[in-house]
């Protein structure tokens, strides 16, 4: 089975609790997916709102926000 990212770059997302431990300070924060990786399709580079650094999140730690 070939895995591909389910979210595209440019998708607005909210951080939620996934299967891995996560810093509670990130829960509920929103941001923008800025990077996907063909070799690790379940990992996403996200820049959270009001930050400039990219952070990595697992696919199950993100939920897409409705289009405005």
Distance between the termini: 34 Å
Low-confidence stretches: none
Range of helix content: under 10%
Task: Tell how many strands the DSSP assignment holds.
Answer: 5
Under CATH at level 1, the class stands as Mainly Beta
Question: Mind summarizing the main beta sheet?
Answer: 5 strands, antiparallel
Q: Could you tell me the radius of gyration in angstroms?
A: 11 Å
The overall number of domains is: 1
Strand and helix order: EEEEE
The gross shape turns out to be globular
List keywords for this structure.
globular; mainly beta
Task: Write a short abstract of this structure.
It contains no helices and five strands. It is mostly beta strands and 68 residues long.
Produce the secondary structure layout.
Blueprint: E1 12-15, E2 30-36, E3 43-48, E4 54-58, E5 62-64
Antiparallel strand pairs: 1-2, 1-5, 2-3, 3-4
Task: Describe it.
The protein is mostly beta strands. The protein has one domain (12-64): SH3 type barrels (Roll), CATH 2.30.30. It is 0% helix and 37% strand. It contains no helices and five strands. The protein has a five-stranded antiparallel β-sheet with strand order 4-3-2-1-5, with no helix packed on it.
């Amino acid at each position: 089975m070939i895995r591909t990212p389910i979210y595209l770059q440019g998708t607005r997302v909210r951080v939620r609790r996934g299967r891995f431990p996560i810093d509670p300070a990130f829960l509920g924060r929103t941001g923008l997916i800025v990077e996907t990786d063909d070799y690790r399709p379940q990992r996403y580079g996200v820049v959270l709102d009001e930050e400039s650094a990219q952070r990595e999140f697992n696919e199950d730690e993100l939920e897409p926000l409705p289009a405005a």
